[in-house]
Design goal:
The complex is a heterodimer of chains A (326) and B (257). Chain A has 326 residues and is mainly alpha-helical. In chain A, 76% of the residues lie in helices and 1% in strands. In chain A, strand 1 (147-148) and strand 2 (151-152) form a beta hairpin. In chain A, helix 1 runs antiparallel to helix 7 and helix 4 packs antiparallel against helix 10 (203-229). Chain A is globular and about 80 Å long. The two termini of chain B are 30 Å apart. Classes of the chains: A mainly alpha (326), B alpha/beta (257). The interface between A and B is medium-sized, with 25 and 40 residues.
Chain lengths: 326, 257
């Protein structure tokens, strides 16, 4: 897709996000929209890392949680202003991702997946066990709500607009990157590390760059999450959430940023609709994912592209027969 | 020979107990087409891998333009003006032809990452330059019309030409070609020979060529080195090498006396 088409998509998406609350019957749906945006932010970062650069991370829930918990602790326990806590939380997460990525990305193969898997599990244990700091399994309560220069964002609608704006900004950055020499280099090293090196790409550096960038996206999502809900618990940042994030990207079609966002919203919204089925909810969720992978092997973005191509062909055929008759 | 663009001295490579290369001295002169030939398993591609930094030698040194590059990683050598192609094509199959060639400009036309992320005017200028120079390289190999095709959809011969265009886009001073004629038919091979000479004459670069096709090698090479079981057995002009009894023995399996 051309940069222009991507920008048109982004404009439409932004308009949709801004208009969506007006169509919602109550605040509960706004909560789901906010969570959908935060999950999308995670998924966009992972789309760059997994889909484009081909590096698998099974620990992004850890980055999400690390940023959330550190910002929560700094603001609630240490008494920092919310803005400073959020910045510090993101900075700390970026630094940690750098330390995790540096050794594991110098190696070939799936060392990053293994390192991040371990990292995610260790963090998840830390969130649960360090009860004095994190509140343990029952969660961290009393996190101050998002505020700017002393003005607390009281209404969920205002907070939603901020989150949606941040998401669109992240998508813009991602599109810029993908349509630049860096995006090409990431796709190149995914296909052939040898050839990418031969073209002068420092592959270890590029992998580290995109890994840290994706961790930063997750970190921003994490701090927003903490100061939106004002309560966080370890169960939100476990290994299963890391897997869910990968599922979002895969469902979206790996390389498509819009796809990753649709995947994120799908995975966020679907369980809400399946609530009515109670006991079989998980089974249905799994079945739907399996069906998606069977019928949309290249994800929702791929399915959409094929559908669109078919509609255009049908349209062209109709115009051709119309012209012949007329 | 003071004008050697590339020189290896005493290069050795071991794979387990096998001496893939044993104490190889090799020189490529500035502006010349230098061929490395030899029977299968002689270590030709290994030597090319050592030169381009894909294989670390267990001994010896490599000098490029008078600088010792023995310890330099592959991407630094590429940025320093040494670009290679691959025997088993290593094109970026899911990218377009133009994007493939644009990768050739990657090291040369560079801009800090934040410029790319914010799409600053400087980033846009660089992207426009990359696009223009990639198109020029594609035109040079006669593939401009395929610019927007997906690379994996090209016919094999065109994929080879694509690799060449990608290498040219890097404006190398030294071009390393690993069996560029492999899988090409006679007509395509003749076109390739003309292309290599034209590249050398147009860009004034030096070429190191690993190749099995003797007609191609003898036709365009200024100098030839013959490897056999990881050792240099002969070097000289095509005429000298062809007459060397050691070379004849290596290829035809005669007695070495």
């Amino acid at each position: 897709m051309s940069y222009r088409k991507d920008m048109i998509w982004l404009g439409c998406f932004f308009a949709l996000l801004m208009l969506a609350p007006a169509a919602l019957p109550n605040n509960y749906f706004l909560t789901i929209l906010i969570l959908g945006c935060l999950h999308s932010l995670n998924a966009v970062g992972l789309c760059l890392l997994v889909g484009h650069a081909g590096q698998i991370s099974l620990g992004h829930a850890g980055f999400y949680g690390l940023a959330a918990y550190s910002s929560a602790w700094l603001s609630a326990t240490a008494g920092w202003p919310v803005e400073a806590s959020m910045l510090a939380g993101v900075a700390l997460t970026v630094a940690v991702s750098f330390l995790i990525g540096m050794p594991s990305l110098k190696l070939k193969g799936h060392y990053l997946a293994m390192a991040t898997l371990g990292f995610g599990i260790i963090l998840s244990i830390l969130f649960t066990e360090t009860v004095d700091i994190t509140g343990g399994p029952s969660g961290f309560v009393g996190i101050p709500r998002l505020s700017f220069f002393g003005h607390e964002v009281k209404k969920d609608l205002g907070l939603y607009r901020i989150v949606a704006g941040v998401l669109c900004l992240a998508v813009w950055l991602a599109f810029n990157l993908l349509h630049s020499r860096i995006g090409r280099a990431l796709r190149a090293l995914h296909t052939s590390e040898k050839a990418a090196q031969a073209m002068g790409v420092d592959i270890a550096r590029y992998k580290l760059f995109v890994f840290v960038l994706s961790a930063a996206f997750s970190a921003v999502a994490g701090v927003l999450y903490a100061h939106y809900l004002t309560f966080i618990a370890p169960s939100s940042f476990g290994f299963m959430f890391s897997v869910e994030l990968i599922v979002m990207v895969v469902l979206g079609g790996m390389v498509s940023v819009p796809g990753a966002i649709v995947g994120a919203f799908f995975v966020t919204v679907l369980p809400e609709f399946l609530r009515a089925f109670e006991n079989v909810e998980v089974v249905l969720f799994g079945a739907i994912l399996i069906l998606c992978m069977m019928f949309l092997p290249d994800g929702m973005a791929g399915g959409w592209n094929r559908l669109w191509a078919r509609v255009r062909r049908a349209w062209a055929a109709r115009r051709a027969t119309g012209a012949a008759h007329g | 020979m003071g004008s050697a663009v590339l020189a290896t001295s005493g290069v050795s490579v071991r794979f387990g107990g096998v001496h893939a290369l044993a104490d190889v001295d090799f020189e490529a002169e500035q502006g010349a087409i230098t061929a490395i030939i030899g029977p299968n398993g002689a270590g030709k591609t290994t030597l090319l891998n050592v030169i381009s930094g894909m294989v670390t030698p267990s001994g010896g040194s490599i000098r490029f333009d008078g600088r010792d590059i023995t310890a330099a990683p592959a991407h630094e050598r590429a940025r320093g003006g040494m670009v290679r192609t691959f025997q088993n094509l290593e094109i970026f199959s899911n990218m377009t032809v133009l994007e493939n060639v644009a990768m050739g400009c990657h090291g040369r036309l560079s801009v800090p990452a934040w410029h790319s992320m914010l799409r600053t005017p400087r980033s846009r200028r660089i992207e426009a330059d990359i696009r223009r120079e990639a198109m020029e390289a594609l035109e040079f190999v006669g593939m401009a019309e395929y610019a927007l095709a997906t690379a994996k959809d090209l016919a094999f011969g065109r994929q080879r030409a694509l690799e060449l265009a990608r290498a040219l886009a890097a404006r190398p001073r030294l071009l390393l070609l690993d069996e560029p004629a492999a899988g090409l038919n006679i007509a395509e091979t003749q076109a390739l020979a003309a292309m290599i000479v034209r590249i050398r004459d147009t860009y004034g670069l030096s070429v190191i060529l690993v190749e099995h096709d003797m007609e191609l090698v003898m036709g365009i090479s200024d100098a030839i080195m013959v490897l056999c079981f990881g050792q240099t057995i002969s070097r000289g002009t095509p005429a000298q090498v062809q007459k060397d009894p050691k070379v004849v023995a290596a290829y035809l399996g005669g007695d070495e006396e």
